[in-house]
Amino acid sequence: MLEKNIAQRFLKDFRLLYPMLSIRKEEQVRNRIADLMLEIETPGKKNLKRIVCEIKAEGFPKYLRLAGKQLKTALENDKSLYPAVVAPYISEEGRKICREENIGFFDLSGNCLLEFNGTYIEVKGNPNRFPTERKIKTIFKGKSSRILRVLLLNPDRQWTLRDLAKEASLSVGQVFKVITRLEELDLVERRDQGGVRLAKPDELLNSWRNEYSYRENESFNYYSLNSVLQIEQAIADECRRRKIRYAFTLFSGSSRISPFVRYNQAMAYVDDPVEVAEKLGLKKVESGSNVTLLKPYDEGVYYGSQSKDQIQIVSNIQLYLDLYDYKGRGEEQAEFLRSQVIRF
């Protein structure tokens, strides 16, 4: 949506979106320091307040932070004016940034935040009525997620796009698109000579876990009379013998990295689960399984795999994602792993 159209729709729907407020006057801002100035009557006290608004086509955190700094710099000598941003939708993360920058906001979905002269108005919880076609969720899916693994497993490293593309086995073009999205979300920062570095590993991991599901992998469930430890060792030995890529996850992995809960089911990513199961004589079952082999949705799940007791385990990031999404005590085990090993 164009900024001009956003401004027009905002003024047209203002009374519907924000019935507690009234616009007494609207005008263009002198010297073009912002897009719009509103004189608003607040409820209760019936006070008038002049609000200088910057219109943004998208309410990504990066744009909100830039708008906040721009407005505060422009208005630093006039305390009678209150800075605010207008966008189609501003998320909870965007709301947090507006608080940090001490600016208000309105969005076309009916959410707002205003705080000045003893007046505090907040409306939240309205869903995004204008979802962008550029789906942010896509950075957490498929091959794009390889970039997130590389960044999260190397949180202090500065990368060039070319080096990042090589590490993630992707094209520079695809890396550029993902990094651009992460910039818009204020999760990475540009450094000297075009490098990029992860700015908020904890927020990136939180965002990813909320979109992730280990069920995106294809599951094969089996039963064996052997103990879980015997099954795990047999899977590892067979995969090594046949040179099939594998890595244990969920409780099979966490028991070797940060043991916290007991478990009775072996779980591993295997490139050819059916072949391995047949060679080991595992019985395919619909319920009551004690072995689950996962065919990865993307080879990125193996990135950063680690060896423990001569058995391959997925990276701590992959392990956390799988555990957090797992029923039972998976989330509890995930948070223990995060606090004790990942530590962000």
Globally, the shape reads elongated
Rg over CA atoms: 26 Å
How much strand content do the residues show? 15-25%
Please provide the ordered H/E string of secondary-structure elements. Answer: HEEEHEHEEEHEHHEEHEHEHEHEEEEHH
**What CATH architecture label of the largest domain applies?**
2-Layer Sandwich
**How many structural domains are formed by the residues?**
3
Uncertain residue segments:
none
* CATH class value of the largest domain: Alpha Beta
Structural class: alpha+beta
Percent helix, as a range, is: 25-40%
Span from first to last CA?
Answer: 36 Å
Tell me the major beta sheet: 7 strands, mixed
Work out the number of β strands: 17
Strand order of the largest sheet: 1-2-3-4-5-6-7
Could you say what the CATH topology of the largest domain is called? Answer: Beta Polymerase, domain 2
Please tell me the overall pLDDT: 91
Tally the helices: what do you get?
12
